[in-house]
Structures are given as C-alpha cells and as structure tokens.
C-alpha cells in the first residue's frame, strides 16, 4: 500500500502536472547521491538531486504477489559523481536505490514512493551505463542448496572454511580474549599476525611487533602522570591548596585542609578504560586519603603502606590525590598507568604486503621484492592500500616472476609506489586444503566420490 499526501494526490488528478522522477542511491560505504529526470537540479530532504545525468529508467511495475519486480536504468556517464571507473570499481555494487516522484514546482507536497531495491548487475562503456535494480523479492529467486562435488564448496577465509586469511587490525583500548588474532596497523605493518597468549586490554600505544615467528610481544602501557615521585616544586606539575606541600620527594598534607582537598594534575585519560593506580603513604597519623581518576574514586587508605588498585576511569580529567579534612601524612610514588596485560605470539600471516615497482597495464604490474614461487597468488585477491585504487580489490589470475596479472583491469591507473595487500588463493582441492592450509578438518568437498565410470559398472565388475 502506498501513501500519498492530499496535495500531491490532487495534483495528479489535474490535466497538467509538473512531475519528475528522483533516484536516491545509498552506497555500502554510506555515500548518498541523488539524481532526477527533471531539467534542473533539485534539493529535497537535504539531498541534492542532479539533473545533468541523462538517465532513462524503464517502466516500473508493482504487483501484490511474490513476482520479481525488477527495473533497469540506462544513462550517460555525464555526472562527475557517477563515473565508469567508480562503477567498475564496485562502489555501487548492492547499493540501496529509492525511486520516487515529486512535483518539482512544489516540493512541500512530499513524494510518492515508486520502488525500492538494490543495484544488481551494472554494465558500463565509455559513455553509457546500464544498471539493474532488483526488488526485495529477487532474493526469493536464489537457488538454495548444494551439490556433492570433489571440490570444496567453501570460499577461502569464509565462516565455513575457517582459515584466518585477513585478521582485523590491532586497536587501542580493546579487550582481547585468548587466541584472538590481529594484524599490525598499516602504519606499523609487517607480514605477520599475532595471537593472544595472555588475554587483557590493549593500551593506547601500539607495540613494536616482533617479526620472528614464535616470539612474544608484550602490550605497551602508558603512564598518565608526570613526576609521580615529586621531584619538582608544587605548581610545576601538581597543583593544590596551601594545605598540600611538596618537598624532599614527597607530597605532604598538614591537616588544615577542607574535606576532599585534592592535589591534582590536569592530565587526560580515556573514559571507560581500566587503569592501574598505586601510591605510597608514610608518616601517617590521622585521617584518610585516596586516588581519584576523573570522577571515579578509589578506596580510602588509613595507614602507612604501598597501595595498588585498578580503577575504570569515568570522565577524562583530572587525576588527583584526595584527602579528607583530618588526613596528616606523606604521599610518594604515585602512578596511574593503563592496565595492559596482553601478550602476543608471532605467527605467519597469509596476507602479504608490498609495493608496485613496475606497471605494464592496469591489469599487469610487478613487485620486484616478491620472492614467492610462481602461481603462489593464483586465484587470490589483491587490494590496494594507497594510490588511486585504494580499497579496490581484484582477483589475481596468474602470478609469474614477481608479476601479477589480475582477472580484470583495475578501474584507476596503477602507479609505481602504490602499496597493496595480497593473499594466495585456493584451488579447492583436498590436497591444497591439507598441505597449504592445514585445514582438512573443514574441507567441504567429497574427494572420494566415485566417478561416472564406477557408477556405470555392472554388479560384480
């Protein structure tokens, strides 16, 4: 059932109408674009609908059953926002498409929704593109089921295969569980992956990763405070009321303070992150003292000793030593550092990094630093991480003598110096699964199915 405003309904009943069709495209990366059949650009609901695109939609048919309602659009590649290279790069694959009608003379009449779907097959030439818009019922046309086969039915790296081809990048302030695996960030990248052997939180600073397989890398903890040993005068790093003094390497409180009087530093922590706090109390005679992280308070201490406590920071600033109105004593060795316990073990990673050193074409290029054997990356995927093709992936047809031949040309010019990630493919045979990936337990084929000769034999043969 379609809804329509009374004003637009009345306009449709008139002999002369001022209507146009608008297309709103929402790509998978969140980019929204608008196009219209009107002769001028329109702005509707905060989005610009561009007129100079020369597109021609097919008729739109809607039914009340489960029949597939598809439509097509043919257009000229005139818009700077809709280019052949972007279409070929897959930027518009499976994009959401909203089609509706407007009265371009009075946009306050609102719209009449005509269709919704996803972009299916896109074909583009030098000046013209064709795109299929598939309705929601298209999903019901998909064949569900599989055939017995000697080849594996899983795709390398998917949930059924289980081979970890491309682990997530390391992230700060993240709780990692035992056996979690990460790759370094691009800025600190190498051709290794790292598995957690001691669980815990990561810090704000990425570790310097040990590239030797089997070695360990410890997480890095950052200290928030400066001069926790009180070697500088009051006012340099620490600030507080006159009741607090700093001398001879300690901070002292003389009992003249008001309740919850604080000696503090305006340092910035991270809200919700676990910090390990510690300080030492000496020459204690009365009252109580505690450490405060943002708005999160620690435990009151009422004796001499060295105290350690884990605190989840609330707010971001400041860090302070807080005394009640009766506290008399000295404070020393104050520390607030990220609670980082993670330990990582170095493993080989299937995803390799490299830089293009020579270009023959957009589908044939070389990395002279590659030392792998011929055919290593056949059927694998290469993704550029810099250059004009950043984020674009393409299947590798062949890899020979450090030269890649992609299945299709990359949409933008491949240049010397472009960096990339690449991983080897899989021919879906039992031998490759067993020998190259040690993953035979997840093999999704039936390698011992008898061939047609065996099936056609008579009994006893």
UniProtKB/TrEMBL annotation:
Residues 376-453 form the Bacteriophage phiJL001 Gp84 C-terminal domain. InterPro entries: Phage_phiJL001_Gp84 (IPR011928), Phage_phiJL001_Gp84_C (IPR018964). It comes from the Bacteria. This is DUF2163 domain-containing protein. It comes from Sedimenticola selenatireducens.
């Amino acid at each position: 059932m379609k809804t329509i405003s009374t004003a637009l309904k009345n306009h449709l009943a008139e002999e002369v109408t001022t209507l146009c069709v608008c297309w709103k495209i929402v790509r998978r990366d969140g980019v929204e674009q608008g196009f219209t059949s009107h002769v001028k650009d329109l702005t509707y609901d905060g989005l610009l609908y561009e007129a100079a695109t020369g597109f021609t939609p097919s008729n739109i048919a809607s039914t009340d059953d489960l029949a597939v309602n598809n439509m097509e659009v043919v257009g000229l590649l005139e818009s700077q926002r809709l280019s052949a290279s972007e279409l070929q790069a897959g930027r518009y694959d499976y994009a959401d498409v909203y089609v509706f009608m407007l009265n371009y003379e009075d946009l306050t009449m609102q719209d009449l929704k005509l269709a919704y779907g996803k972009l299916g097959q896109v074909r583009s030439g030098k000046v013209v593109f064709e795109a299929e818009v598939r309705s929601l019922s298209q999903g019901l046309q998909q064949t569900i089921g599989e055939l017995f086969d000697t080849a594996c039915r899983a795709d390398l790296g998917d949930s059924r295969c289980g081979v970890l081809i491309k682990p997530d990048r390391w992230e700060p302030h993240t709780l990692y569980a035992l056996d979690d695996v990460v790759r370094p960030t691009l800025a600190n990248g190498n051709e290794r992956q790292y598995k957690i052997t001691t669980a815990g939180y990561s810090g704000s600073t990425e570790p310097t990763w040990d590239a030797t397989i089997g070695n360990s890398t410890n997480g890095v903890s950052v200290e928030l405070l400066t001069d926790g040993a009180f070697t500088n005068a009051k006012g340099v790093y620490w600030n507080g009321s006159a009741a607090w003094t700093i001398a001879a390497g300690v901070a002292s409180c003389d009992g003249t303070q008001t309740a919850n009087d604080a000696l503090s530093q305006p340092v910035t922590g991270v809200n919700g992150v676990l910090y390990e706090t510690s300080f030492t109390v000496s020459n204690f005679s009365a009252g109580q003292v505690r450490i405060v992280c943002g708005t999160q308070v620690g435990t009151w201490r009422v004796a001499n000793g060295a105290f350690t406590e884990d605190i989840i920071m609330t707010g971001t600033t400041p860090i302070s030593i807080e005394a009640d109105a009766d506290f008399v004593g000295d404070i020393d060795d104050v520390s607030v550092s990220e609670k980082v316990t993670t330990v990582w073990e170095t493993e080989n990673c299937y995803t390799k990094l490299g830089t293009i050193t020579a270009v023959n074409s957009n589908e044939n290029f070389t990395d002279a630093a590659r030392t792998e054997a011929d055919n290593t990356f056949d059927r694998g995927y290469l993704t550029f991480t810099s250059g004009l093709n950043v984020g674009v992936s393409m299947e590798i047809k062949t890899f020979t003598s450090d030269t890649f031949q992609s299945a299709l040309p990359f949409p933008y010019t491949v240049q010397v110096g472009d960096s990339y990630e690449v991983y080897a493919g899989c021919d879906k045979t039992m031998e490759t699964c067993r020998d190259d990936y040690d993953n035979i337990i997840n093999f999704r084929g039936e390698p011992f199915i008898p061939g047609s000769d065996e099936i056609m034999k008579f009994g006893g043969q």
